[in-house]
Amino acid sequence: MDQIAQLQDDIQKLKKMVDAIFEKVYVDSLYLNHSSTHRDSESCSAADVYADKDKAIEMINRLYTKLGEADMLDLTTVPAKDIADEQVQELKEKITKLQNERISLHRRTEACSLDHFVFFRMRVGQMLRNGRLLRRAIAMRSMSSLPSHEVVGLPALSPTMEMGTISAWLKKEGDKINAGDVICQVETDKAVVDFEAQDDSYLAKILKPAGSADIKVGEPIFVTVDDQDSVAQLVNFTFDASATSTPATAPSTPVEQAPATPVAPAHVATPVAAATSTISDRIVASPLAKKIARESGVQLAGVSGSGPLGRIIRADVEEALTRVQSQPAAAQAVEPVAAAQGLAPAPIVHGDFTDFPLSAKAQAFAAQLTQQKLDVPHYHLTIDVTLDKLLSARDLLNKTRGENDQLSVNDFILRAAALTMKKVPAANSAWMGTFVRQFHNCNISMMMSVEGGVVAPVLREINLKGLDGVNADVRALVEKVQNENSDLSDNDFEGGTFTISNVGMYDVKSLAAIVSPNQACSLGLGVISKRVVPNDDPEATQIYKYATQMTATLACDHRVIDGATGAQWLSSFKELVEDPLRMIL
């Protein structure tokens, strides 16, 4: 029995070896078949590798069957180990064949540009992974003379992510990394996401410091090793365009180093005139420092950081706040205005103009809007909606509700939009190229203004909730967006089937929005105001009256819903808003 247990354990280890070798050989094989520099060279085909894998798995299954049969018999007459030896030996030969094939592949790739090969490996590795594994970094184990190490590339942390920015490193070089630890924070095109470790290792080298922007998916960002003793040997590791690793030992030809630039003392405000010289493209600060600065009106552009790599930390902001509070009142009055004008990344002042660099998120959003406007055949429908009955119903319901539980006009609007989707389900759809997808639930993307732009977090399954549920969801989502330390993730911005934008707070009458990706329509709302309208009451002495109205504009994708369907949706929405009792029937 002990022999069988030992064999079963060995087989599991062998199976893992086969899987690992298979993936590496398969990726290399794809590269060789893809590379134009090796069209005439011999390379194994993906089908051959698949066949080898299948044979190995088949051998393992047969071996398990024989072990099971041996377990049922008398071991004195049927020695289980002898039965399995032949199969295990065959499996080992198969693994040896795969290993030799991998060595051959590596030899044939020496003529290729190494950096080209590395990035190809990363791209293929990303394609081979699905679901949560897409969030894993794509790494390549180096075969150089340096200690065994992994060069880890920037992973795709969202389906639309092409580039990212390193917001902060939570681990430093030499630190132990355990599976599940957050190594760094990456700003994607949608949010700031934690990059979690999948395996235990040591952080040997950071290739992209905090604040590094426009890093392409797959581009190396750090290096890990399996043991702490190897960290020191990678202290001078580099990964440049030629993809050569700089050895830890000193080079044979000494290179004269330029004198280091003196570091500016901490807690010194940067004068405005200095903006004409070189300024960082991004203000690097901790989330807590940003929160304190935002709440107190301190301009981060005028604060020098004392944290790692010049990062602004809490103490820096508190020191700047102390200086501001000690200034005369006249000087303090200017500070909030400057803070309101401050943007991140910091503006760069030239002679006759000022450049405002865009974050990776802003660039991705702009590109997406441009493409959406070009690809989608838009049309817009506008209608005026009377809110007098809705306002009366809101005031009546709020009399019995707590101060922190008051209903808003927005709650009624969201509820009316979701119910209208039930009446006109064709509007709750999306163009998918060769078919139209109609969604069963209404998930509303609610446009919200935040510092530096707008975001559109999603309220889910609004069609299944009453006014109380809508109100609770809105409050929770607003609090989550406004709280910089919240766990807001990409999932909070994905899956919307309809978008509502409200510009009424800016006293704007109407908004003709752009239809969001994977949606069929978007509703733009204007300011609520008193307007003169015809008096329909036959007993009234005045032919005109005042009414509280709002202009609603529906932007539609003509490929999904035609003009009649869009008009039907807007008419049904108007009926519900003007007679809110319909919402509870």
What does this 3D model show about the protein?
With 585 residues, this protein is an alpha+beta fold. The protein contains twelve helices and 22 strands. It has helices at residues 2-34, 46-72, 80-108, 114-128, 287-296, 314-325, 329-341, 360-375, 388-398, 409-423, 467-482, 563-578; strands spanning 139-141, 149-153, 163-169, 176-177, 182-187, 192-196, 201-206, 215-216, 220-225, 348-349, 354-355, 378-386, 429-431, 436-438, 444-446, 448-450, 453-455, 458-459, 498-502, 521-525, 529-534, 544-557. Strands 12, 15, 18, 19, 20, 21 and 22 form a seven-stranded mixed β-sheet that branches. A five-stranded antiparallel β-sheet has the order 1-2-9-7-4. Strands 6-5-3-8 form a four-stranded antiparallel β-sheet, with no helix packed on it. β5 and β6 form a beta hairpin. The longest helix is centred in the N-terminal third of the chain and has 33 residues, at 2-34. The protein starts with a helix and ends in a 7-residue tail after the last helix. The model is unreliable at 30-47, 69-81, 105-138, 241-281 and 327-344 (pLDDT under 50). Residues 284-321 form the Peripheral subunit-binding (PSBD) domain. Residues 149-225 form the Lipoyl-binding domain. GO terms for molecular function: dihydrolipoyllysine-residue acetyltransferase activity. Its EC number is 2.3.1.-.
